[in-house]
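Backbone shape codes:
***
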Amino acid sequence: MTARAITEQTLGAWVIKCNPHKTDLAPMIAAGRAHEHWCVADNYRTHLMAVGQPVLFGVSAHARRGIWGAGQLTGTPVPGPQWKVSTNITLFDAPILASHIQSVAELSMLEVFRSPQQSNPSWVDASEWAVLRSMLPG
């Protein structure tokens, strides 16, 4: 069996990605919160998701690409034709831009920026999460 890159021990935080060409950001910005439910792929990562785990909100395909919010998972993934997971994500007053994040040596290779086309969820490992947490507002 092939070793998995993500385990409960290596996970720092999940990253839910939003492509604003497919999902309108305006209502979320107005509310100061990301949508409550997000589509996720049916894969081993999704099966590791649990209530209370930290989650970041990443926006791709945007002039201000980066991490726009943070919160927690509020539910476990729900199977269906399109799997979904519940979140509670507060948006920041200003995003942490990808250019800034990638200028930090420990964060230069984050999966969410290397493979933005990959389906949700993406992730950051425990050491990356420790660095990112220190960059989060408030």
Observations:
- The longest strand covers residues 84-97.
- The radius of gyration is 14 Å.
- The mean pLDDT is 92.
